[in-house]
């Protein structure tokens, strides 16, 4: 039988709990519920996703784009600490919008109703763009992976 002093037992339990937590957080699930610490992935810069509404999200660099493939001067939604910033963004109809994920887990920017826009999964460290709807209006959006995350896109 092993005997541990109070400090040794506490340290052993802490190490075991940490190992279990890291193992659970590193599962292969494509929709993690919480941000594991120290996790970082990247994706191919040529990834493109077609949307059912005819809009698309893309990370491919092209003409008139910066080094990240984002159109120069494009409005941006930055995801950090499980929030969208800015939480309300105004754009022109049909304008490209960049989504930059600075979190350590995947997120989406998905119109709450209809199929106005949906980035699909934006992986940690990834930047994608989507095209704003052609119809003026106010479009609520959420992260489908983390439904407590909300924002509003106003199309002029």
UniProtKB/TrEMBL annotation:
Signal peptide: 1-24
InterPro entries: Cupredoxin, EfeO_Cupredoxin, ET_Amicyanin
Keyword Lyase: no
Superkingdom in the source lineage: Bacteria
Compositional bias annotation for Low complexity: 28-62
UniProt keyword list: Signal
Region spans: Disordered: 28-69
Domain EfeO-type cupredoxin-like per the UniProt entry, residue ranges: 76-155
Alphabetized PANTHER family for the sequence: BLL1555 PROTEIN (PTHR36507)
Protein's recorded name: Blue (Type 1) copper domain protein
């Amino acid at each position: 039988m092993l005997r541990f002093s109070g400090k040794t037992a506490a340290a052993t339990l802490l190490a075991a709990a940490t190992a279990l937590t890291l193992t659970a957080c590193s599962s292969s699930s494509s929709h993690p519920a919480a941000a594991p610490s120290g996790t970082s992935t990247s994706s191919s810069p040529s990834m493109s996703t077609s949307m059912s509404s005819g809009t698309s999200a893309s990370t491919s660099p092209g003409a008139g784009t910066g080094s990240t493939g984002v159109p120069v001067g494009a409005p941006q939604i930055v995801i950090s600490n499980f929030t969208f910033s800015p939480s309300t963004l105004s754009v022109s109809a049909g304008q490209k919008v960049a989504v930059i994920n600075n979190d350590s887990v995947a997120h989406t920017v998905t119109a709450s109703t209809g199929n106005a826009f949906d980035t699909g999964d934006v992986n940690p460290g990834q930047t994608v763009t989507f095209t704003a709807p052609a119809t003026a209006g106010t479009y609520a959006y959420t992260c489908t992976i983390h439904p407590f995350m909300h924002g509003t896109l106003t199309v002029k």
